[in-house]
């Protein structure tokens, strides 16, 4: 796929590539230069850490995370595998 460099040094990443990589407006990219190529990689946020603890109030298992983000059922399943 051929793209054109603008006078401001900008290029447009084709929509098919943006869709495949899940890129959206204002996403950040990491740029690396080799001898003959420019490599762009999406800068991804680290996945939140999820763990299961016993609730102090009820004594029942409780899922907690280090970040305010969505917790998926897979994250809960993986955290329960480590729960004593």
Secondary-structure topology with pairs:
Elements: H1 15-21, E1 29-33, E2 38-42, E3 50-54, E4 61-65, H2 73-82
Antiparallel strand pairs: 1-2, 3-4
Explain what you see.
It is a single chain. The chain has helices at 15-21, 73-82; strands spanning 29-33, 38-42, 50-54, 61-65. It is of the alpha+beta class and 84 residues long. It has 2 domains: 1-44, Ribbon (Pemi-like Protein 1, Chain: D), CATH 2.10.260; 50-82, no CATH class. A two-stranded antiparallel sheet has the order 1-2. Strands 3-4 form a two-stranded antiparallel sheet. A hairpin with a 4-residue loop joins strand 1 (29-33) and strand 2 (38-42). The protein is elongated, with a radius of gyration of 21 Å. The protein starts with 14 loop residues before the first helix and ends with a helix. The model has no long low-confidence stretch (mean pLDDT 85).
Q: Could you list some keywords that capture this structure?
A:
84 residues; Pemi-like Protein 1, Chain: D; 2 domains; two-stranded antiparallel ribbon; 2 helices; elongated
Strand order of the largest sheet: 1-2
Arithmetic mean of pLDDT: 85
Tell me which CATH architecture of the largest domain applies here. Ribbon
Figure out the total of helices: 2
Bin the strand percentage: 15-25%
Task: Please give the alpha-carbon distance between the first and last residues.
Answer: 52 Å
Helix content: 10-25%
Q: Which segments are poorly predicted (pLDDT under 50) over 5 or more consecutive residues? A: none
Radius of gyration from the alpha-carbon trace, in angstroms: 21 Å
CATH class of the largest domain: Mainly Beta
Tell me the total number of β-strands: 4
The third-level CATH topology of the largest domain is Pemi-like Protein 1, Chain: D
Give the number of domains.
2
- Strand/helix succession: HEEEEH
Question: Could you give a short account of the major beta sheet?
Answer: 2 strands, antiparallel
Class of secondary structure makeup: alpha+beta
Which shape, going by the Cα principal axes? elongated
């Amino acid at each position: 796929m051929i793209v054109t460099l603008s006078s401001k040094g900008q290029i447009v990443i084709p929509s098919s590539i943006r869709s495949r990589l899940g890129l959206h407006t204002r996403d950040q990219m990491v740029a690396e230069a080799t001898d003959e190529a420019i490599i762009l990689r999406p800068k991804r946020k680290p996945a939140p850490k999820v763990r299961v603890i016993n609730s102090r109030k009820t004594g029942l298992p409780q899922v907690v995370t280090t970040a305010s983000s969505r917790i998926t059922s897979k994250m809960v399943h993986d955290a329960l595998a480590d729960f004593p």
